[in-house]
Recover the amino acids of this structure.
């Protein structure tokens, strides 16, 4: 909504090519915001050139993410679900050429609860109090997707999940 921090859309042009990333927030099980379906229609209507369009859909409900994927199929290059931190195994190219995955995963500690210290998360769940969550800082991983896009059509050709594990966090941060 108007007044919310951030931009919601980033447009970059390089070598006569347009690269656009749009961030949407879902409404199911989330704090109320603009309708992401109507909002994406408004944003796409403002774009006057063709290019690679990646939609980061920050949402809780898998059904809402899947519906967005089909809603945008053929209109954007990829719809990538985020927010739950747990990668899903449903990456695919939708019928009209949009790459889709319900959740790309997270970058964070392997032995953690969504990147936070296990003990902190357990205290919060066991005692029902708003206990402070601290980031876990042991072995970590980077999760995401690699997407191949045909630059003549801006349709996805391939999507592949990636996961890289790093065993020594301390040496990476120094």
């Amino acid at each position: 909504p108007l007044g919310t921090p951030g931009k919601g859309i980033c447009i970059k042009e390089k070598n006569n090519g347009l690269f656009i990333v749009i961030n949407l927030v879902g409404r199911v099980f989330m704090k109320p915001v603009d309708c992401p379906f109507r909002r994406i229609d408004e944003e796409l209507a403002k774009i006057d050139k063709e290019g690679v369009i990646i939609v980061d859909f920050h949402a809780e409900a898998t059904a809402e993410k899947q519906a967005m994927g089909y809603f945008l199929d053929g209109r954007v290059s990829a719809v990538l679900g985020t927010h739950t931190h747990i990668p899903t195994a449903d990456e695919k190219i939708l019928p009209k050429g949009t790459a889709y995955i319900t959740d790309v995963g997270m970058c964070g500690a392997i032995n953690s609860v969504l990147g936070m210290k296990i003990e902190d998360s357990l205290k919060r769940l066991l005692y029902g109090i708003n206990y402070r969550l601290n980031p876990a800082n042991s072995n970590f991983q980077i999760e995401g997707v690699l997407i191949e896009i045909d630059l003549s059509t801006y349709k996805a050709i391939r999507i592949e999940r990636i996961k890289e594990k790093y065993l020594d966090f301390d040496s990476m941060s120094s």
